[in-house]
């Protein structure tokens, strides 16, 4: 049986780390592509040379040549500039729209049946760009943000409560910005609502840290996070390739769901071999829906900017 083929576009911090985690989990054969000569080839060779120690048989190759990506099952788009201290994700829009446009066109040409996971920022606008450019069915295009934001919230909660990270289950919705919508009402520790374990003030503090989680790392490093983003991306790829029917938050196309009206935004979904197989509709209360609507308005503004740039 042939192995699955995963192309990762962009061999920078997020792309290379995604490749390495995916290889160690033996998700399939990996092609890492970049426009910088030697970068993807060098990192892929380094990863391949780690395989006898880490014991994985995944083939990891690096290239500048899109032909080597042909017929991938999954294409993960990480190409694009990351933010620096003082920048918001939105500041990346003009530059990254052109990069994601180009890489989406190539993806549609060489892997017309693939499922695309976009990681480049500003995330929701870049997923919108990839969808517009490729014309792929909406279930085959999605963005990674909820996996990361949920991981951050889970980590902060686990540290605060002194419990295993494995026990935390949470849902985040909205765009991948500071106006994301963590939902404490749907967050639990092995089924125990967090409202039973923490007071409102503490929950609000952890939500605020989650919203600013990306900025916290940017300010420490001088560039943006990549271990947790890569881990979140691999979780999505694994759910799809292993047809796990994983319930998780991701940036997905919503028509009538949540009153979105045809945009890509963060919602809880079921991920399986067909990509986004279902959008889970929660009965949001007034305050939750208002926060979601505010975040969605921001996502729509960015999509309008993309329309002008494409
Ligand atoms: N969705 C999220 O949660 C999340 C988290 C972290 C980073 N990001 C975003 O992911 C993107 C990548 O971040 P990073 O830290 O890996 O940046 P990076 O600068 O380390 O890597 C980006 C890579 O893309 C390559 N690239 C640029 N144009 C290309 C093209 N046309 N074809 C192929 N490769 C091309 C660059 O050469 C570079 O190697 C950024 O936009 C960043 O904001 C998103």
Q: Which short descriptors sum up this protein?
A:
310 residues; 6-stranded parallel β-sheet; 14 strands; binds nicotinamide-adenine-dinucleotide; 9 helices; single chain
What's a quick, concise take on this entry?
The protein is α/β, with parallel strands linked by helices. The protein contains nine helices and 14 strands.
Description:
The chain has helices spanning 13-24, 39-54, 93-110, 123-134, 146-161, 200-211, 213-221, 227-241, 286-309, and strands at residues 5-9, 29-33, 60-63, 74-77, 115-118, 141-143, 168-169, 172-173, 181-182, 188-189, 192-193, 246-254, 263-272, 275-279. It is globular. 43% of the residues lie in helices and 19% in strands. The chain starts with a strand and ends with a helix. It is an alpha/beta fold and 310 residues long. The strands form 4 sheets. It has a 6-stranded parallel sheet with strand order 3-2-1-4-5-6, sandwiched between helices. A 3-stranded antiparallel sheet has the order 7-10-11, covered by helices on one side. It has a 3-stranded antiparallel sheet with strand order 12-13-14. The chain has 9 helices and 14 strands. Helix 3 crosses helix 9. Bound molecules: nicotinamide-adenine-dinucleotide. The site of nicotinamide-adenine-dinucleotide has 35 residues, from helix 1 and helix 3.
């Amino acid at each position: 049986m042939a192995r699955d083929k995963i192309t990762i576009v962009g061999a920078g911090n997020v792309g290379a780390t995604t490749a390495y985690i995916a290889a160690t989990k033996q998700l399939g054969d990996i092609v890492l592509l970049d426009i910088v000569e030697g970068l993807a080839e060098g990192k892929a060779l380094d990863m391949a040379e780690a395989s006898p120690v880490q014991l994985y048989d995944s083939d990891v190759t690096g290239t500048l040549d899109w032909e080597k990506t042909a017929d991938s099952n999954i294409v993960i788009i990480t190409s694009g500039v990351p933010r620096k201290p003082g920048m918001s994700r939105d500041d990346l829009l003009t530059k990254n729209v052109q990069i994601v446009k180009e890489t989406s066109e190539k993806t549609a040409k060489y892997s017309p049946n693939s499922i695309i996971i976009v990681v480049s920022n500003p995330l929701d606008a870049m997923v919108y760009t990839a969808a517009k450019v490729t014309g792929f069915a909406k279930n085959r295009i999605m963005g990674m943000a909820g996996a990361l934001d949920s991981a951050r919230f889970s980590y902060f909660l686990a540290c605060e409560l002194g419990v295993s990270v494995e026990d935390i289950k949470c849902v985040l919705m909205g765009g991948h910005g500071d106006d994301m919508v963590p939902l404490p009402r749907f967050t639990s520790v092995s089924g125990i609502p967090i409202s039973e374990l923490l007071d409102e003030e503490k929950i609000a503090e952890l939500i605020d840290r989650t919203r600013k989680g990306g900025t916290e790392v940017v300010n420490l490093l001088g560039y943006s996070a990549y271990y947790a983003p890569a881990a979140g991306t691999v979780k999505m790829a694994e759910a799809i390739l292993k047809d796990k029917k994983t319930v998780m938050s991701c940036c997905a196309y919503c028509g009538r769901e949540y009153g979105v009206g045809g945009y890509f935004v963060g919602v809880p979904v079921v991920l399986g071999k067909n990509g986004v197989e279902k959008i889970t509709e929660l009965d949001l209360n007034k305050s939750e829906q208002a926060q979601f609507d505010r975040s969605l308005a921001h996502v729509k503004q960015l999509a309008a900017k993309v329309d002008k740039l494409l």
